[in-house]
Design brief:
Number of strands of chain C: 9
Distance between the termini of chain C: 43 Å
Shape of chain C: globular
CATH topology of the largest domain in chain C: Rossmann fold
Strand content of chain C: 5-15%
Radius of gyration of chain C: 21 Å
Number of domains of chain A: 1
Strand content of chain A: 15-25%
Number of helices of chain C: 11
Order of helices and strands of chain A: EHEHEEHEEEHE
Strand order of the largest sheet of chain C: 7-6-5-8-9
CATH architecture of chain A: 3-Layer(aba) Sandwich
Strand order of the largest sheet of chain A: 3-2-4-5-6
Helix content of chain A: 10-25%
Oligomer: heterotrimer
CATH topology of chain A: Rossmann fold
Largest interface: B-C, 51 and 44 residues
Chains: A alpha/beta (211), B alpha/beta (444), C alpha/beta (350)
CATH superfamily of the largest domain in chain C: Aspartate/ornithine carbamoyltransferase
CATH architecture of the largest domain in chain C: 3-Layer(aba) Sandwich
CATH class of the largest domain in chain C: Alpha Beta
Structural class of chain C: alpha/beta
Number of domains of chain C: 2
Order of helices and strands of chain C: HEHEHEHEHEHEEHEHHEHH
Shape of chain A: globular
Distance between the termini of chain A: 20 Å
Chain lengths: 211, 444, 350
């Protein structure tokens, strides 16, 4: 089932599970606060360009940090085109109950799913996540979406694409492509969630990655 | 001829060391260490530090034969008795068929004699079929070869007051005694465990202490009124101890027993829902445990009796509510008494001889042969105990056929090294000799 | 969490996690597609030694909504009638590869034995055992109370905006009325509601309160009117009274149904004694006209039908939390170990 990174127990979506700042002490900062801001602004413009405006565009953030990133993107979209409602056109999509690795992880708390006010039917849904890795989280998100409605199109925005895909999934909008080895950990820190400055951090050569 | 044994340095009733010579079924000599005359061919047993007790007498044993030979037989149960240091057991009447006729009690008595591990004294049922409706033929059982003197419907209570009065009176004719299983039936319908804090939490139907105490109170007053003796089986509550203490202070001829398990275990064990701990009367509270220990120490409670109640796996490997009542006890009784009463200083070994041998023999009216002093010329019914040994109880390794010991995995003090029945070793080095069947004529 | 056997074993955090998870599960149940793939390929066995169509259907629905395979195993009365024993049933389920066993049993403690006797390595969910415990019932009751009265907007009928997610029940007063002695629902609720910070009052005729109740973390009363008037409970939970407990000669627990209703039934007059926001609960099935009048049962304060709906969400949450997460080695049974034993009085006092 799990095609394997050679590291049983390694989360396929490691950035989503980082919460201890101390962990980042030994990491290398590859994107700083201004880099993150620039990347998001660029993604926002790309979304508008690709969708030829903001009509029928809604954002769905994937918890935890994807939700925060979606909120930030929403502000930028609204700045580009006031027709975008930065509150009503954004939602969050918890994919826990659609994951294929529930038996390989400690029990995950089920998060909230909140759809945009206008729903997703016939919309262009942009899924927003912080780090794109194996693609399994996105696979789960696509399944979850399918149970919630039938969007006109689904696109994917990620702050970081670190490679090592295990499924035929590719992002439409990427903040930064980051070549990594599988034993490394990539973590995104966002001020709203983690406190401190925004940053993308690479750390580890496997010694702590493997549980 | 029978083997002569010399027990080197044994301490009769825990007293000064002596050499004890057993020959021709009796205690031939008790001499200062190293001074006994040892005949050629005698078997010497190094017994330094070991306590020599009169063979233990159990007034309350369930041997299950006839009827439930899958749980225990007279042979397997008496072998377990020997391993526990017993030389005589009273076999309760709730067999199938019930021991309510001379025929059944003679059969049980004969099976015991043939097995040869310990003397078997059948207890006769008080009422026909234990149904509590009319008296069984008590006189016929008394006059039978089994010479029954103890009568009990144990497992059930003789709850009808007029029937109990008649039984108490009737057995006077042959110096019998009624041993009452004190359990008011209406107050204990469907009851599963002691009624109290634990039963309320675990949701098992409660068995109030008053259901036992009310019957004991009634019976001691009845015994006083008709001038009979009464024996109270497996007393288990603090209130019961008080009632018996009061009755004795009034001069009522009552004796009482406590089981080893009620001396140590409490109803907290029901929280495990392990039916091993389901027993009648139920395990009570720590307060009750302390009260029965005190009662045993001050003589209010006369004896310890095992209520050895073997059950098959299938009768215990099930829901608590569906499981049978009872636990085994013959092979652990002495250790539990040592742990709870001797090692705590509440009884000495002479007291142990009194509560586990002399007094039960007297209550059962077998004191002409059992429960005798450890003295020259007396029948060589003896138990040799190493009180400094410890052991972890393993149900599967016991001599009893059934595995329902509540002490599985417990470390208990003391070990029966040897048991002698009329001079013949039934147990040596802590193990049954295997010669008993042959010695008894190979009847089985 | 490996098993769900008793609410007495649940910590406050575990209890809140269960309720919060149930809230998310409930949210999925208003969707058009209610089924989630979460437990695909897992097998849930409903093992019922006692009839309870409602509870079985609730668990079955919960398991199916999570895509588990459901096997219904009705073993009514098997052990007593000397049919298959609990042990053999457990071994059979083990051989069938059950991942979770939902067990309803007439014998108190049977789920505990299934979980700990070493016959089975599945997660065990107690769906009601004898007169002992009914944890999912208590959880759905707590969930219903929290939804209406808990959380930051607590006390407002209709509940907070977020179903009270994250909140406990601190300060809420709950009256549980009726046959406490025989009630696994009452036992389960007393423990859980206490753990969540609510103040529970048991109201019952003295004959239907267990000896030993004084050690429970709750108040007791024989007087329903006084409790409603003086305590002003936020929620009143009426327990079902079994008809066979009535009169029935000398062993009856109360003289007549009429007298029971007079003193312990919830009717329109008693309903009026309650505060505005108070809710009326009943685990079902109701004896209308005995412990609860039709007016009370059908009043707008009654949340009895909602309790049933919440039952599915709570059971989904329990199944999810027991069946997700890394596979754990079977827990050692907390029974007899050598050495000092609980339930053993050591030979010390003197």
């Amino acid at each position: 089932m799990h095609s394997g990174t050679g590291m049983p127990g390694t989360p396929d979506h490691p950035a989503g599970r980082i919460d201890d700042a101390a962990d980042g002490a030994d990491g290398t900062v590859v994107l700083g606060e201004s880099d993150v801001a620039r990347a998001l602004t660029r993604i926002a413009h790309e979304i508008v360009e690709r969708s030829k405006g903001v009509t029928d565009v809604v954002l769905l953030g994937i918890p935890t940090r994807g939700v925060t990133l979606a909120a930030r993107l929403a502000q930028r979209l609204a700045a580009i085109d006031p027709a975008f409602d930065p509150a009503g056109d954004v939602g969050e999509l918890d994919v826990t109950m659609y994951r294929d690795d529930l038996r390989r992880q400690p029990t995950r708390a089920v998060g909230i799913t909140r759809l945009p006010e206008a729903g997703i039917e016939g919309k262009t849904v942009v899924l927003v996540d912080d780090v794109l890795f194996s693609g399994r989280t996105i696979r789960a998100a696509l399944d979850a979406l399918g149970d919630l409605g039938r969007p006109r199109a689904v696109r994917l925005a990620a702050l970081v694409d670190r490679g090592h895909r295990e499924l035929p999934i590719r992002p439409d909008f990427v903040g930064k492509n980051l070549p990594t080895s599988t034993s490394e950990r990539v973590r995104v820190r966002l001020s709203e969630v983690d406190g401190g400055e925004d940053a993308v951090v690479i750390s580890g050569r496997g010694e702590e990655g493997a549980r | 001829m029978s083997t002569t044994y010399v027990l080197r340095g044994a301490r009769p009733l825990g007293g000064e060391p002596a050499d004890v010579v057993l020959a021709d079924g009796v205690i031939a000599e008790i001499a200062a260490p190293g001074t006994a005359a040892v005949p050629a061919g005698a078997v010497e047993i190094e017994a330094a530090g070991h306590v020599l007790l009169p063979g233990l007498v159990d007034l309350h044993t369930h041997l299950r034969e006839p009827g439930r030979e899958d749980a225990e037989t007279v042979a397997s149960g008496t072998r377990a008795a020997a391993v526990g240091g017993f030389t005589a057991v009273h076999a309760m009447a709730n067999t199938s068929p019930v021991a309510d006729t001379a025929g059944v009690v003679e059969q049980v008595w004969r099976l015991g004699t043939q097995a040869g591990w310990a003397d078997v004294h059948p207890v006769g049922a008080v009422t026909v079929g234990l149904d509590g409706e009319r008296l069984a033929e008590l006189g016929a059982m008394a006059d039978s070869a089994a010479r029954v003197r103890v009568f009990s419907d144990d497992g059930k209570c003789v709850h009808d007051p007029i029937l109990m009065r008649r039984a108490l009176e009737y057995v006077k004719a042959f110096d019998g005694v009624v041993a009452q299983h004190a359990q008011e039936p209406r107050l204990t319908e469907g009851a599963q465990m002691n009624e109290g804090v634990v039963s309320a939490e675990v949701g098992l139907a409660g068995w109030p202490a008053v259901a036992e105490e009310a019957i004991i109170a009634r019976d001691v007053l009845l015994a006083e009124h008709v001038g009979s003796r009464l024996h109270v089986c497996h007393l288990s509550t603090a209130g019961s101890v008080e009632i018996v203490r009061w009755a004795k202070s009034r001069g009522i001829d009552v004796t009482a027993e406590v089981t080893p398990h009620h001396l140590i275990l409490t109803d907290e064990l029901a929280r495990t829902y392990d039916p091993t701990y389901k027993v009648n009367p139920p395990l009570r509270t720590a307060k009750d445990v302390e009260a029965v220990r005190e009662g045993l120490a001050d003589g209010t409670i006369d004896i310890v009796a095992t209520d050895h109640a073997p059950h098959t796996r299938e009768d215990k490997d099930c829901e608590w509510g569906a499981a049978a009542f009872g636990m085994t006890g013959l092979e652990t009784a002495l250790s539990v008494v040592q742990q709870t009463m001797v090692d705590t200083g509440r009884l000495d070994w002479a007291d142990v001889a009194r509560v586990l041998s002399t007094t039960p023999a007297r209550i059962g009216r077998i004191d002409d042969t059992q429960g005798r002093p450890v003295a020259a010329g007396e029948p060589a019914n003896l138990a040799l105990v190493d009180p400094s040994a410890t052991r972890v109880v393993d149900g599967a390794a016991q001599a009893t056929t059934s595995g329902n010991t509540p002490f599985r995995g417990h470390e208990l003090p003391g070990r029966v090294v040897a048991t002698f029945l009329r001079g013949r070793a039934t147990v040596l080095d802590g193990a049954p000799t295997g010669s008993a069947d042959a010695a008894a004529g190979g009847a089985r | 969490m490996r098993h769900l056997l008793s609410t007495a074993e649940l910590s406050r955090d575990e209890s809140i996690l269960l309720l919060d998870t149930a809230a998310q599960m409930a949210a999925t149940q208003s969707r058009q597609i209610k089924k989630l793939p979460t437990l695909r390929g897992r097998t849930v066995v409903n093992l019922f030694f006692e009839d309870s169509t409602r509870t079985r259907i609730s668990f079955e629905t919960a398991a199916k909504r999570l895509s588990a395979d459901v096997i219904n195993f009705s073993a009514k009365g098997s052990s007593v009638s000397k049919g298959e024993s609990l042990k053999d049933t457990a071994l059979t389920l083990h051989a069938m590869g059950a991942d979770a066993v939902v067990v309803r049993h007439w014998a108190s403690g049977a789920p505990y034995q299934l979980a700990h006797a070493g016959w089975l390595d599945a997660a065990v969910l107690n769906a009601g055992d004898g007169t002992h415990m009914h944890p999912t019932q208590a959880l759905l009751d707590a969930f219903t109370i929290r939804r209406h009265l808990g959380g930051p907007d607590g006390g407002l009928r209709g509940g907070g905006t977020d179903d009270g997610v994250g909140a406990d029940l601190a300060g809420l007063k709950v009256a549980i009325v009726g046959d406490v002695l025989h009630s696994r629902v009452a036992r389960a609720n007393v423990r859980l509601l206490h753990t969540l910070g609510a103040e529970v009052t048991l109201v019952s005729p003295p004959t239907l309160l267990p000896v030993g109740v004084e050690t429970w973390p709750c108040r007791t009363s024989y007087d329903l009117d006084a409790t409603l008037a003086d305590r002003q409970p936020d929620a009143v939970m009426m327990l079902r009274v079994q008809r066979e407990r009535m009169s029935g000669g000398a062993g009856g627990f109360f003289p007549s149904p009429l007298e029971y209703t007079r003193y312990y039934g919830l009717d329109a007059r008693r309903l009026a004694l309650l505060p505005e926001h108070a809710i009326v609960m009943h685990p079902g099935p109701m004896n209308r006209g005995l412990e609860i009048s039709a007016e009370a049962a059908d009043s707008e304060r009654a949340v009895i039908v909602e309790q049933v709906a919440n039952g599915v969400a709570v059971r989904m949450a329990a199944l999810y939390l027991l069946l997700s997460g890394e596979e754990q080695p079977p827990a050692a049974p907390p029974v007899t170990q050598p050495g000092t034993q609980p339930g053993t009085v050591e030979g010390t006092p003197r």
